[in-house]
Design goal:
Elements (H helix, E strand, L loop, with lengths): L9 E2 L7 H6 L2 E6 L2 E7 L13 H15 L9 E13 L8 E9 L6 E9 L5 E16 L9 H4 L1
Antiparallel strand pairs: 1-2, 2-3, 3-5, 4-7, 5-6, 6-7
Amino acid sequence: MPIKRPADARPVAPYEFRGFNGLIGHQVTHWRPGFVEFTLKVRPELCNANGLLHGGVLMTLLDGASGFACTFNDTATTRRLSVTLAFTTQFIKAARDGDVLAILGAWRPSTSQSTFAAETEIYDQAGDLIATGAGTFRYLKGERSDGTLTFLDKAAAD
C-alpha cells in the first residue's frame, strides 16, 4: 500500500542539511511522528552519464527519509540520533534532470527500544513510483541539538 501524507503532518520551514546530505539539495516539507516528506528537484550534477538520476542519490534519499521519520520531536528543539543497520532498495523507474520528486518516509512501530524499521517511497511529479526502500535502524544515545525544525502554520503554508 502506498505511503500517503497523514492529515496531521505539519509543514516545515526551510531546513539546512549538513554534510553529504547538504550536497543533494533535498528539502523537508512535512513532518509528524512516524512520517516525513522530502522534495528534490533533480539537477544535472545528480545524474549519471546516461542523464538519469544516479542510483546513489535515490538510495541516499530513501535512507535519509527512513531515518528522519523516526526522529520526530514535538518541541522541534532536538532530534534523536539513529544509524542504518541494513537497507534494501528497489529501483522502479528512472528519474531525469528537471523531475521533481516527493520522498515519503514512514516508521513502523516496534517493541524494541533500540531498533526500528522504516520504509520509504519516491514518486515523480506525475505520481509514478520511482524507487522504494526498507531498512532497519538503531537509535543512538543522545540527541542532535542542530536538528531543529521550524513548523509553519498550516493555514499559512497552504
